[in-house]
Amino acid sequence: MIMNVGIDKMSFYSSDMYLDMVDLAHARNEDPNKYLIGIGQKKMAVIPKTQDVVTMAANACLKIIDDDDRNKIDLIIFGTETGIDNSKSAAIYLQNMLGLSRRGRAFEIKQACYGATAGLQMAKEYVENNPEKKALVIGADIARYGIDTPGEVTQGGGAVAMVISANPSIAEFEGTSTFYSDDVMDFWRPLYRTEAVVDGHYSNDVYVDFFKKTWDEYKQITGKNLEDFSAMTFHLPYVKMGIKALRAIIDEASEEHQDKLKTEFGFGKVYNENIGNLYTGSLYLNFLSLINNSDQLKVGDRIGLFSYGSGAQGEFFAMNLCKGFKNSELISQINADINNRKQVSVSEYETIFNDWVPIKDQELSFDTSKDASTFTLKGVKNHQRIYDRK
């Protein structure tokens, strides 16, 4: 008998600093509503050089990983497009930092913002075949477009960690996934750049097109329709992108159900609009925000998830909520982390952005005294990143 498999635990980590979008708009001589309404962002996480995808993932995992997980996790999949090495995976560093079993598989997946979803689907199949085991899936990234660029307002960063198991507490996979891919140049990041190259309007169009393709195929295969979903979640490079996708199919539901989906989307966007772009983690931050903030969802509700990675790959699948999807302790912790961040000025943000770890041969030493996180990046020596646990 195949057991139900899904997300047993989830957590999130980001920097303790943020930039207010109103301040950024004023500095760029823009109407704040262009960012607040037109883009849908309120605040943006500002990531210091003492944090990278490895430390953020480790800090996220500390909130949920216990000794039982350490004994049972033997698959670690790290989805990121902000890798720290062209050869060695971030998962190997994470395995060591968390004290996970050496008898395991640990590797990194890259396909723009889709990497964590690829990892999630691989973990699902692994646990289905090995129900006594668990898998750890990470979506961690730092979104960088550059100072005073069109994409500046869609920056951010952080890590989402998910433990996948049989008989999960949060949500279980339901049925099939539908997916679509094509070779398009809407967004990419060459090896010699820390900032992305993007064709924004084209990428928006491709995103919505891939969503409609995967959604239409999902309906055809499963016989489900929009009325069968209590909420829809999306990869949110910025909040307005998800609104555009939802609008593309919203007329398929009754007016009453449209209102419900819009209300749930409002709960789901809370974390994203205050953190910004997580690339691989954005969909799962949207999902986490939904289950943490909604007061209408109940056990058994079906949630739609649309994953998109530029270049491009799209996937739509469904999950059903389980009896432990509300974790009041973790909700309080995440909300406190977000609400207690320090606001930085535009000039402070620009200094932090420009003082980034360069892509070149250089030994570096960082002052981590102002970084209160458990795991930090201390510097680079002999071509190796030096990590510290406080």
Automatic annotation (TrEMBL):
All copies of domain Hydroxymethylglutaryl-coenzyme A synthase N-terminal, residue ranges: 4-167
Domain of life of the organism encoding this protein: Bacteria
Keywords associated with the record: Transferase
Record flagged with keyword Transferase: yes
InterPro entries the record matches: HMG_CoA_synt_C_dom (IPR013746), HMG_CoA_synth_N (IPR013528), HMG_CoA_synthase_prok (IPR011554), Thiolase-like (IPR016039)
Pfam families with a match to the protein in the record: HMG_CoA_synt_C, HMG_CoA_synt_N
Family statement drawn from the similarity comment of this UniProt entry: Belongs to the thiolase-like superfamily. HMG-CoA synthase family.
Name of the protein this chain belongs to: Hydroxymethylglutaryl-CoA synthase
